[in-house]
Amino acid sequence: LAKTTQPISMDSYEGQEVNITCSHNNIATNDYITWYQQFPSQGPRFIIQGYKTKVTNEVASLFIPADRKSSTLSLPRVSLSDTAVYYCLVGDGSSGGYQKVTFGTGTKLQVIP
Amino acid sequence: DSGVTQTPKHLITATGQRVTLRCSPRSGDLSVYWYQQSLDQGLQFLIQYYNGEERAKGNILERFSAQQFPDLHSELNLSSLELGDSALYFCASSVGQGEVNTEAFFGQGTRLTVV
């Protein structure tokens, strides 16, 4: 299973774009990259998922370079309500999924007014 | 609202006691997962059930057990509780058997405090 490495914490001012990078050097061919968001005392919430290139939805963008050894979650114009922990997960559907993925400690994003 | 319901939201109990945490998955989801999140720690996978059968086991202690009933709700039983068992316990559900390329929906968690 691909191990992921992300910064422990980040600070950003309101209104700025935030980019959180996740490193996954031994990602496998079948692996997808998924990001979750967790607010204090709440369960994680799915944000975005991708396999390669760029994926965008209403809340975030996910950039994946051609070698797929890293990925970047981009949050446009963050607000105070984006203060949360962000988890990068890597795994596939063929060799077990959520039960084998380690959520780790994630990146704690603090948005400053 | 994720559609996953966990009860109770908070639980305070003494060491040595036994508690049961309950989870109702989203309608149509067949997989239920249990996770433990201690203070400043990531989510640790405990166990997964799929359509009533145990599918995978993680770092679940022998004092802990779980089951999934025919109506697909699940219960996590924690016995001989120790202070170190104090944590947030999350339940998640998904439609499939756990593929990461599908979305898992998490409940709000049960905060267990052992005193």
Short overview:
The complex is a heterodimer of chains A (113) and B (115). Chain A is mainly beta and 113 residues long.
Please explain how this structure is put together.
The complex is a heterodimer of chains A (113) and B (115). Chain A is an all-beta fold. Chain A is 0% helix and 46% strand. Chain A contains no helices and nine strands. In chain A, the strands form two sheets. In chain A, strands 1-9-8-3-4 form a five-stranded mixed beta sheet, with no helix packed on it. Chain B is built from no helices and eleven strands. In chain B, 0% of the residues lie in helices and 50% in strands. In chain B, strands 2, 4, 5, 6, 9, 10 and 11 form a seven-stranded mixed beta sheet that branches. In chain B, strands 1-3-8-7 form a four-stranded antiparallel beta sheet, with no helix packed on it. Chain B has 115 residues and is an all-beta fold. Chain B has strands at 5-7, 10-13, 19-24, 31-37, 44-50, 53-57, 64-68, 74-78, 87-94, 105-106, 110-114. Chain B is globular, with a radius of gyration of 13 Å. In chain B, strand 7 (64-68) and strand 8 (74-78) form a beta hairpin. The chains are: A mainly beta (113), B mainly beta (115).
